[in-house]
Every structure is written in structure tokens, then in C-alpha cells.
Design a protein that fits this description.
Layout lengths: L2 E5 L7 H17 L6 E7 L1 H12 L7 E5 L5 H4 L1 E8 H11 L3 H16 L7 H17 L8
Parallel strand pairs: 1-2, 2-4
Antiparallel strand pairs: 3-4
Helix pairs in contact: 1-5, 4-5, 5-6
Amino acid sequence: MTLDVFIDDEFPIPEDLITTLKAAADLTLNEESASNGIVNLRILGDSEMQQLNKEFRNKDKTTNVLSFTNNDISKEVTKNIGDIAISYDYVLCEAKENGKSFSDHIIHMLVHGIYHILGYDHEDDASAKIMESKEIDILAQLNINNPYN
């Protein structure tokens, strides 16, 4: 298994969505030849996400997803390549605002977060194009429409 999921009790994530999140992680890591890696996913609320964003990015606001790459020496033993936090509240609101299903959007945020852990970013147009292309390909394999249209 490549994805360990931790969900606060107040957020109703059905088992079939958890199964799809794990499949999306497996697919993404396999595509990037990182199938031995383990990613931790924590689904939490806006207030905790805001605290994380403030502490680690100096941004005192909530966001949809944060990724934390494991650069620790333990990586060789644990195979943990990183942690991802996704705000249930933020993703739910974003999905409604953009006419997307919650499931599709949270899966996209997971894939997006994994690509950050693997070293991809969207700091400039060229980097963004590469990262978005990879995300679109993974999501298409999961029958999820291009989220950037």
C-alpha cells in the first residue's frame, strides 16, 4: 500500500472514495517510478489547515492542499516520501464553486500533492505545464475530466 489515510471523524469520506484515493496514489507513484514510496494523507478542517499554512508557509489563511516532502534519513527505512494535508472544507467549497464533484476534486488535490512531493511545482509557466500535464494524464486514467478546463 502506498497511501495511509487519516481522517478526522467529522469529515464524511466514504470507503469507496478512500479506495479511489489509494488507487490514485498507486497510479501516480507507479507512473513516476516511485512505487516503493509511502505517502500519508490527512484530511482535516480549515482551521487546522490555516495553522499549518501559517507555520510552514507564513501564509495566515487556509488552502486546499499542502505537501511536505520527507527529506529525513528515516526515508530509507520507512519508505515514507512525504505527507499531504487536504482541507475537507476548502475542497468542498471549491468543488461547489467550480461545478466539480467533491470526489473528483479531492482526488485531484491528492495527485497534485503527490507531484509536489516528487519535486514538481508550478512556479513558472513551463513547470506548471509539465505538472498539469502529468496530473491530467493520471486523472484521465481514473475517468476524471481535465480540472484545468
